[in-house]
Automatic annotation (TrEMBL):
Reactions accelerated catalytically: L-glutamyl-tRNA(Gln) + L-glutamine + ATP + H2O = L-glutaminyl-tRNA(Gln) + L-glutamate + ADP + phosphate + H(+)
Record field: transmembrane: none
Keywords (A to Z) from UniProt: ATP-binding, Ligase, Nucleotide-binding, Protein biosynthesis
Function: Allows the formation of correctly charged Gln-tRNA(Gln) through the transamidation of misacylated Glu-tRNA(Gln) in organisms which lack glutaminyl-tRNA synthetase. The reaction takes place in the presence of glutamine and ATP through an activated gamma-phospho-Glu-tRNA(Gln).
GO MF entries: ATP binding; glutaminyl-tRNA synthase (glutamine-hydrolyzing) activity
Stated name of the protein: Glutamyl-tRNA(Gln) amidotransferase subunit A
Domain Amidase as annotated: residue spans: 24-467
One record GO biological process: translation
Organism: Candidatus Staskawiczbacteria bacterium RIFCSPLOWO2_12_FULL_37_15
GO cellular component, one term: glutamyl-tRNA(Gln) amidotransferase complex
Pfam families the UniProt entry points to: Amidase
Amino acid sequence: MNFTELTIKQTHEGLKNKKFSSKELTLAYLQKIKKSDLNAFLIITEGLALAEADEADKKIATGNFSELTGVPCAIKDAILVEGEKCTAGSKILENYVAPYDATVIKKLKEKGAVILGKTNTDEFTMGASTENSAFGVTKNPHDKTRVAGGSSGGSAAAVAADEAVYSLGSDTGGSIRQPASFCGVVGLCPTYGAVSRYGLIAHASSFDQIGPFGKNIDDVKTVFNAIYGKDKMDATSANLEFRISNLELKGCRIGVPKEYFMKGIDKDVEKIIKNAVKKAEDGGAEIIEISLPSSEYALACYYILGPSEISANLARFDGIKYGLSEPAENLLDVYLKSRGRGLGAEPKRRIMIGTYCLSSGYYDAYYKKAQEVRELIKQDFKKAFEKVDLLFCPVSPFPAFKIGEKADDPISMYLADIYTVAVKLSGLPGLSLPAGKIGNPSAGSGHDGLPVGLQIIGNYFKENKILAIASQLEKML
Ligand code: GLN
């Protein structure tokens, strides 16, 4: 096996046993990224990566190092890495240089991580395909005519194509789980508050959460353990220790929400998800059909609350403080020109929707109503978790779609989020586990060979239950 195809554990073993140095490994990854035509990376942080690799090799020589020391990773370009550009996929931040490290980056650096570069994202993480990036789409490594998903499409594609051992992304309404599903890698969106958001460029602050992508459950667990925890710079971060869960498939109560298998789901996706549920049952799990009756409102609710928060969060990009500043006659003109030229269609659309929903006269009918619906959606999950340990459902109603297929139709793009937003409205953790590839029985359907992810949802701060069951299941799928 090539040394750029290894998992974290295998890479760590290789470094420990001096099969290769971090420098050699880093150089090999950098070369691979430069040759790649996927457009997974927007920025290659070569100087930083090589310096970190040298540092890691020194630590390894002393024997005092962690499982992540010297292991090359990729970071979504919405997370700040000090001294490096951070564009959030937007023209308005094209030349913006991060003045400090996000807390997750600080933590990874302390573990000796090697940061190869910053990965592509939909502009300000708004989208489900990276087609909203101002810097071109990321191609799916399984079929380059298709999208890698989004918004963390670059981070998912980088891991799937062995351009990084692992990566970080962010999930506001599905942006870790959906690209993980489309690219056939593991992606974990932690409970809201499990991981500090400090240094993540905000999309919708009551939803945003950083999480890892990896080649298997073990890798994702290692990275999650390295990044979670209370942070004084993020008041919403939780002070919790994640204890190892000894939950076993045998006896585990798995809920299957019936509303997630209704009209519109691709037949091949449904087959793969139902097969995964069956495997869990064969492994001794108790399968319980449950109902989440308010989920039908989740998408509408998300596309009111999300844009409302966006309209406030993006006000800071005014042409004065950050990034692009267009010369103009007066202050208003600076705002209009900088935002007009710097922001793309999707952020503009959401700023307008959000401003409308928050405006006096409409606030009660939209924002307030959506907050009430958000509570009903949370209650559905609360009731479900009185009966079950975990929920199993699809991540996406369809596999990776063709580049361009939905790009001009925002509503059809929003529908891609149908199975992922309720989890974020509730602040719950969710994971995408590769459950299989669309295979021969559907030959001719045009999407043979594409990966499909199973979504495993847990109760608040039960990441370790998700990971325990996912790790048993991954050997069976
Ligand atoms: N696709 C969703 C959106 O466009 C989710 C994005 C995300 O999780 N960052 O809002």
